[in-house]
Amino acid sequence: MAKSFYDKLQDSDSSVRHANNESIMLQNRYQIIELIGQGGMGSIYLANDIRLGKRKCIVKKLKDDFFKDEDKDKALSFFAREAQVLSSLHHPNIVHVYDFFAEDDNYYLIMEYVDGRNLEEILYEQGKPFSESEVISFATQILDVLVYLHNHYPPVIYRDLKPSNLMLNEQNKIKLIDFGIARPYDSNEDNTHIVSQGYSPPEQYWGASEPRSDLYSLGCTLYFLLTAQEPKALQVCSPKDIVSSISDHIDLFIQRATAQDIWLRYQSATEMLEAIQPPVRPESFPAKYKTILLIACLILFLAVIAIAFMELLTTQGPITGDLTTENSQKLKPANNVSPLSSSLAGQDDYLGEPGALLIKDQELFKAR
């Protein structure tokens, strides 16, 4: 009969060494430095990988003080699944898994060391909520991870999204840790009833979590980061009720994400990622550019007027009053009338009798 996955783990080297009688050495490779945390599933240690230049790493040890064997078997199942899920994932915002083994009836998971703290610790230490711009940056990174997980084959649902599982490193990059209850999604399979009070959606309480459940948990997480208030279980979150300066856009964004009806939420991480950015508003035009634009428009207007005037002159010719061709013909003198006579023709009334014009004309001729 072929050995099971867990039987093979039991066959691994189970020697526990002590280096210089001070620190524990696992697998002749991982040197335990210190205990840095404990949780419901086990303990977390900082260690050095002496085979790779004492590279820092995280050793996660499954607890061994279960009251019932069935509880231990269940915890071991989660622990092994975490290792298997993480080993198939490759994303810059997800911790990498390096090793998984059993030693002296204890089970260990070796993971990437993240030089930073989780968002819950940071918020309590700074004593105030994060700014809206910071939270949008965090949300964008987390949603990018969820897009990756939900489109993975098979899809992976995280199921435990909350501030304490989000590490922020020194480069302000988010890292998702603790995939203990993450699992490949199968719509035909009943899920385990594991919840985080205030962060789990209604469907997760009856074991029906699915990709949109992660979106709900993210909405609750963003609410906490913006308000420093724990979200209430199974309620729509409105951060603006706590912090009035929060924009309407983000408030409505979180309200939709935390809708109790799964069909009223964002339907995918991709849709939610597109909706997180505030609407683009046109920037106000600087005053100096307004003046330049006004002058340019005035010059253009005057140029149009000048061009129109020149076109008018070209098509109609010069304007000379009422001196039309017909009128000018009337003013031309007859061929047998001297120019001088013509010039005096309009002075009949002034010279008196009609014959006087001829006499005057003759006198002028003699005078010449």
Report the major sheet.
7 strands, antiparallel
CATH class wording of the largest domain: Mainly Alpha
DSSP, total strands: 12
Instruction: Please tell me the CATH architecture of the largest domain by its name.
Output: Orthogonal Bundle
Helix content percent band: 40-55%
How do the strands of the widest beta sheet line up side by side?
1-2-3-4-5-7-6
CATH superfamily of the largest domain: Transferase(Phosphotransferase) domain 1
Low-confidence stretches: 1-21, 340-345, 347-351
**Kindly, what is the distance between the CA atoms of the first and last residues, rounded to a whole number of angstroms?**
153 Å
Structural class by SSE content: alpha+beta
Report on the architecture of this protein:
It is a single chain. By secondary structure, this protein is of the alpha+beta class. It has 2 domains: 16-113, Phosphorylase Kinase, domain 1; 115-277, Transferase(Phosphotransferase), domain 1, CATH 1.10.510. It has helices at residues 5-10, 69-87, 119-126, 132-150, 202-205, 211-227, 248-257, 269-276, 287-316, 325-331, 339-344, 348-351, 356-367; strands at 16-19, 23-26, 30-38, 42-49, 55-62, 97-103, 106-112, 116-118, 156-157, 166-169, 174-176, 183-184. The longest helix is centred in the C-terminal third of the chain and has 30 residues, at 287-316. It starts with a helix and ends with a helix. The model is unreliable at 1-21, 340-345 and 347-351 (pLDDT under 50).
